[in-house]
Design brief:
- By secondary structure, this protein is of the alpha+beta class.
- It is built from three helices and six strands.
- The chain has a six-stranded antiparallel β-sheet.
- Strand 5 and strand 6 form a beta hairpin.
- Helix 2 packs antiparallel against helix 3.
Length: 132
C-alpha cells in the first residue's frame, strides 16, 4: 500500500520508472521519448495520475469529432484511466484509492497511459488536424 511519498517512490523505483519529485510533492514520470510527462500526486484518499494531451480545438466540427472519439476510447480502449476535459485542455487521468493501491495497480495505470499515449493520442491529434 501507499501511505507516504516514500512508499510511492519505492514503487516507482521497483517499476524502474524514471521520475523526479517536484517541490509540491508531485512526481513527474517520464513515459518515453516524445511522450508528455505524467504527474502522480498523493491526494488522500487517492493517488492522482494525470497528463495533459492538448487543447480542445476552437472549431466546432473538430471539437465534436474529438469529443466523440474520446468517449469511444473511454468506453472501449481504456481500462484504468480516462480522457477528460479541464477547461479547454484534454487530459488523461486516473485515481487510485490509497487504502488498497499496490504495485500491480500502479503498474497497470502506467501501462494504460503508455498505451494511450503511444496509440490513441496520435490518432486524436490526427482527427483534430483533419477537421480544421
Amino acid at each position: 500500500m501507499v501511505h507516504t511519498n516514500e512508499d510511492l517512490e519505492a514503487f516507482l523505483n521497483r517499476l524502474e520508472r524514471s521520475f523526479e519529485r517536484v517541490s509540491d510533492g508531485t512526481y513527474v514520470v517520464r513515459m518515453g521519448s516524445g511522450q508528455p510527462l505524467v504527474a502522480l500526486r498523493l491526494a488522500p484518499p487517492v493517488l492522482v495520475v494525470r497528463t495533459e494531451i492538448g487543447r480542445v480545438p476552437s472549431d466546432p466540427t473538430a471539437a465534436s469529432a474529438l469529443y466523440r472519439r474520446l468517449l469511444e476510447l473511454n468506453a472501449n480502449a481504456l481500462v484504468h484511466s480516462a480522457f477528460g476535459l479541464e477547461g479547454d485542455r484534454v487530459v488523461l487521468a486516473a485515481a487510485l484509492v490509497l487504502e488498497s493501491v499496490d504495485l500491480n495497480e500502479i503498474e497497470a495505470v502506467l501501462s494504460d497511459l503508455d498505451l494511450a499515449l503511444a496509440e490513441h493520442v496520435p490518432n486524436l491529434h490526427h482527427i483534430v488536424q483533419s477537421k480544421v
